[in-house]
Amino acid sequence: MSAQFILHGPHALSDLVSRRLSESRHWWSREVDAHVDDAGEVWLTGRVSSYYQKQIAQESLRHLRGVRRIRNELCVCGDGLISATVKSNSP
């Protein structure tokens, strides 16, 4: 059974996405950015080392409450370390 998080306030989904990406033990990427809009759409951009990591990034967010759609635009570009950043359109 996976952990459930309760969302409060306009930045809660961004915070939740950021936490999930930074807590993932599957990261070997150079840079991953997540942009979250008010409608619950998440854009993943940046670089990862393999197609497996690209899929893991997407799947780690798929079942989060509030995520309605994920646009995975990660580039598979080789080895590196993660730097997760989340941006939000919310005021």
Write the layout of secondary structure elements.
Elements: H1 12-23, E1 31-36, E2 41-48, H2 51-62, E3 69-76, E4 84-88
Parallel strand pairs: 1-4, 2-3
Antiparallel strand pairs: 1-2
Short description:
The protein has 91 residues and is an alpha/beta fold. The chain contains 2 helices and 4 strands. The chain is globular.
| CATH structural class | Alpha Beta
**Strand line-up in the sheet with most strands:** 3-2-1-4
Name given to the CATH architecture: 2-Layer Sandwich
Poorly predicted runs: 1-10
Rg, Cα atoms, Å? 12 Å
The helix fraction, in percent, is: 25-40%
| Largest sheet entry | 4 strands, mixed
**Span from first to last CA?**
33 Å
Which structural class should the secondary elements be placed in? alpha/beta
Number of helices: 2
Number of domains: 1
Overall 3D shape: globular
Strand content: 25-35%
The beta-strand count equals 4
Q: List the helices and strands in order.
A: HEEHEE
How is the CATH topology named? Answer: Alpha-Beta Plaits
Mean pLDDT across all amino acids: 75
Describe the fold and architecture.
The protein contains two helices and four strands. It is α/β, with parallel strands linked by helices and 91 residues long. It has a single domain (12-88), classed as Alpha-Beta Plaits (2-Layer Sandwich), CATH 3.30.70. The chain has helices at residues 12-23, 51-62; strands at residues 31-36, 41-48, 69-76, 84-88. A four-stranded mixed beta sheet has the order 3-2-1-4, covered by helices on one side. The N and C termini lie far apart (33 Å). It is globular and about 30 Å long. Mean pLDDT is 75; it is low at 1-10.
